[in-house]
């Protein structure tokens, strides 16, 4: 961690550089002949794409993880997922704690920004809780999945598959090893399995709530009234998106991909496809076979994404809530934006609008580039762009057909989505603030 003192990079720049460094290390490891089943070196662009997808916990792939990569390659991918999900600074702090090294003020500042904590005070305690809770949740998920996988695959393979998919689900990564049944099938073979579905969905939701929310819930248990405003908004918006998304998906797909299913399977699939587009990337139905309505719903959920400081991406639930509240406040001609008997700061509203604007601009740019470079239909280009930028991992099946330039576009979108579009631009453009202010003058809006 001594390197933090040798560079004059701020916390935001350190996060951006850290993720880039992890991606490059992963690329080199996945390029090794030992990482592939056939013993041949993976092309650099393919290794870079896979490493970026794993580190950015996205799940888009140009090669099926099971059929392409050896055990070594799969473990590299799993390590990248864990580091990318928790954040490289959190993992680095774990090693510092194990070595009983002191964590300095510079490192604490980067940690605070990395997990979107409110303040630097108590950040080490929060990181310790994050690491412990992650181990417990992923361990419990692995035990539940092992109940299903071990009888089917044998004890050793079953435990390995359980651990891999538990970490992948918790980190909202979407990587899977179900290519043993058929390449690129994701969790479709377990479409009717209640245990696997509920376990994966629970892991995705917990991972997508955010580290600060975990800490608040652990601190106050079930005393909802004592939760922070942030926690209340995250829980409310998450519940609304899951239930509302499931109802809409069922309504749109009951005569299509859900038509031949048992009623219980329809419920499971609807819930799963409501949860997974919000940055997880697993699927239990054929994404390419969705109706226009189902596709648009999935893209909308991908656009919103998970919550701040979580293992997921997207615009974020709190950002959407702030924009909705600000819009309602403006329409009602009220000065303050209130929720749960609290007033939001003006800077929070400004950040929400800036973050959303940048996110939408990047989405439009990504769609335009995929259309012009690859000649994709607008729907496929939009789906792939939102999936990459939202670090989701769902695809209509075109990822493997992308050329080198298009893959670079997707890589940059995944990186922007994981680091944060606003954070990335701040890292690049941040400079010295000017104390001079220009005269104020009105313009006409709308």
Write structural notes for this entry.
There is one protein chain. A hairpin with a 2-residue loop joins strand 1 (338-339) and strand 2 (342-343). The longest helix is centred in the N-terminal third of the chain and has 31 residues, at 123-153. The chain has a two-stranded antiparallel sheet with strand order 1-2. 62% of the residues lie in helices and 1% in strands. It has one domain (2-425). It is mainly α.
Q: Key terms for this structure?
A:
mainly alpha; transport; 18 helices; 2 strands; disordered N terminus; TrkH; potassium transport; cell membrane; single chain; 446 residues; potassium
What order do the helices and strands come in, and which of them pair?
Elements: H1 11-30, H2 44-55, H3 65-68, H4 71-86, H5 88-98, H6 105-114, H7 123-153, H8 155-170, H9 194-209, H10 211-220, H11 229-253, H12 263-275, H13 292-304, H14 317-331, E1 338-339, E2 342-343, H15 346-374, H16 378-389, H17 404-419, H18 421-429
What is this entry, summarized?
Helix content is 62%, strand content 1%. With 446 residues, the protein is an all-alpha fold.
Largest sheet: 2 strands, antiparallel
* Rounded Rg: 22 Å
Please report which band the strand proportion falls in: under 5%, 5-15%, 15-25%, 25-35%, 35-45% or over 45%: under 5%
Distance from N terminus to C terminus (CA atoms, Å) equals 51 Å
